[in-house]
UniProtKB/TrEMBL annotation:
Keyword line: Oxidoreductase
SUPFAM superfamilies linked: FMN-binding split barrel, UBA-like
One Gene Ontology term from the biological process aspect of the record: pyrimidine nucleobase catabolic process
Cited SMART domains: Flavin_Reduct
GO molecular function: FMN binding; riboflavin reductase (NADPH) activity
Residue ranges annotated for the Flavin reductase like domain, each copy included: 12-155
Pfam family, one: Flavin_Reduct
Domain of life, source organism: Bacteria
The protein's name in its UniProt record: Flavin reductase (DIM6/NTAB) family NADH-FMN oxidoreductase RutF
Amino acid sequence: MKIDDKLFRKAMSSFPSGVTIVTTLDTEGQSRGFTATAFSSLSCNPPMILICLSNKAECFQTFTSSGRFAVNILSQDYEQLAMRFATTGADKFAGGEFVLGESGLPVLPYALASLECKVDQFHPGGDHVILTGIVEHANVHEGEATVYFGGKFRFLAELVPAKIDALKLQVTALMIKAVRKETRAGTLDCRAVLDETGCDVQKAIDLIRSRGQKTPKIVWV
Ligand SMILES: Cc1cc2nc3c(=O)[nH]c(=O)nc-3n(C[C@H](O)[C@H](O)[C@H](O)COP(=O)(O)O)c2cc1C
């Protein structure tokens, strides 16, 4: 039974992925490219990668005949560029962001990584084709990645602190126990100080000590 299109897209959007721009040159030497998240490492020896390209893409013919492609893994500064390369008919290379790489393919100089490949094989897959490529040149730069998740572009730096903050908001019994053990302060005092310090156990202990908060008569065991 065929599942609903929307459900399939939603299921796939719950898999976080990096974002790439895949480029090549047409027979007249014009740069062509599209935004792709369907990218994967394939083999270490020889070094191989794969991308999946829709057979409805305007650039389909170029990619399946040029014999070469480059994958540019985007850092967090390239969200607008990714949108431009996901728009059929856009003047994608007008901004002059790309330079020619070692094999003559368009590459982004400040991509997290650029991988220039020779096409190895094509594998049909429904309404897409899988292009496998042998990597002939690679460049790597430090930086934060752009992530596509839940149908949105996100930054790793944005996701991680948000999670930590969410976790920090709740005072747990374990935190109270840890603060009580070190300070012998009362449960309510410990909870209040943990709230005050954003659930930072060490800060809570230090704060209680610095205030000289009274220890209870019943000794903590
Ligand atoms: C985040 C994102 C990821 C995408 N990933 C792919 C992909 O892996 N393969 C693909 O064929 N199209 C993908 N697309 C759509 C193409 O980038 C878009 O259809 C592009 O315009 C096709 O090239 P064209 O302009 O030559 O038609 C993606 C779009 C977005 C926004």
